[in-house]
Amino acid sequence: MKDNSINIRAIQHFMYCNRRFGLLEINNDWSENAFVVKANILHENVHSGSHKFSSNDIVSRSSVAVYNDDPQYNIFGVTDCVEFVNSLNGVDINGLDGKYNVRLVEYKPRQPKDKTFNESDAIQVFAQKLCADYIWKCDSEGYVYYADTKKRIKLPFKEEYEKYNLLIIDYLSRMREILKTGKIPQKSKDVKCSGCSMLDYCFPKSISYCVQKEINRIDGTE
Ligand code: SF4
Predict the structure, then answer these.
(1) What rounded mean pLDDT belongs to the chain?
(2) Which one of 25, 33, 188, 191 would you pick to mutate in the ligand 1 pocket, going by the greatest count of ligand atoms within 8 A of its CB?
(3) What is the domain extent for residue 83?
(4) If you measure from the C-alpha of residue 194 to the centroid of ligand 1, how many angstroms do you get, rounded to a whole number?
(5) What is the CATH number of the domain that holds 17?
(6) Whose CA is nearest to atom 1 of ligand 1?
(7) DSSP the chain
(8) pLDDT tens track for 81-118
(9) I need a labelling partner for 194 at 20 to 30 A (CA). Which of 3, 57, 180, 220 fits?
């Protein structure tokens, strides 16, 4: 049977632009720009292990692989950081003594100027939550940490669980439809391309070709 599991990372590409998702997942195209490199450096720093620590109350782990193979999701990914917080009301965690509540923390370079958090960041962490809750039978909390403002924002998953759940189910279904057809979607009107690392793939710069100029170039007369 064909594996139709989806990497959580791909959900963000899909939210940014359906065409970008298609280029990456169907064509296996990839290109980096300054935004991508900056985010990579931040994540390498987090995943390097320097953020691994334990105190009496909290056990923190970076780069924890998670999944949820319930057919309505069938997703997997790697979290930036999982904090297991000692609590009598918590759950058992394999390899740890005691009971713990689970916190997910995702690191992002920039906080948006006009709102507390990006909706696409929240969706990414919510997808991780679906996996964490599935694995540890818990009700995990989700946070995003913005490096530029050094703020950790708690995401409203308790209050808006249904909203995020329906959004994820809808995205996954549309993503699977694109993968099934194998057709890369066209750019939609409302998508802004200026910060996208795939710009050169989508809109290659054309250079007009002139035979006389080419002859002059070969002759060295230009
Ligand atoms: S350049 Fe524009 S259309 Fe192309 S993938 Fe990026 S955002 Fe989408």
Answers:
(1) 87
(2) 191
(3) 6-219
(4) 8
(5) 3.90.320
(6) 199
(7) -----EEHHHHHHHHH-HHHHHHHHTS------HHHHHHHHHHHHIIIIIT-EE-SSEEEEEEEEEEE--TTT-EEEEEEEEEEEEEEEEEE-TT-SSEEEEEEEEEES---SSSSS-HHHHHHHHHHHHHHHHHHTS--EEEEEETTTTEEEE--TTTTHHHHHHHHHHHHHHHHHHHHHTPPPPPPTT---TT-TTHHHHSPPP----HHHHHHHHHT--
(8) 999 999 999 999 998 999 999 999 999 999 999 999 99
(9) 180
Question: Residues enclosing ligand 1, CB less than 6 A?
Answer: 17, 19-20, 23, 187, 191, 193, 196, 198-199, 202
> For 137-151, how does the pLDDT look when each residue is reduced to its tens digit (9 = 90+)?
999 999 999 999 999
**Does residue 69 lie within any of the structural domains?**
yes
Answer with the residue of higher pLDDT: 167 or 212.
167
Question: Domain tally for the chain?
Answer: 1
In a domain, 177, yes or no: yes
**Closest residue by CA, ligand 1 atom 4:** 202
Q: 13 C-alpha vs ligand 1 centroid, how far in Å? A: 10
| Ligand 1 pocket, mutate which of 198, 200, 203, 205 (most atoms under 8 A from CB) | 198
The yes-or-no verdict on residue 47 having pLDDT over 80 is no
* 1 located within any domain: no
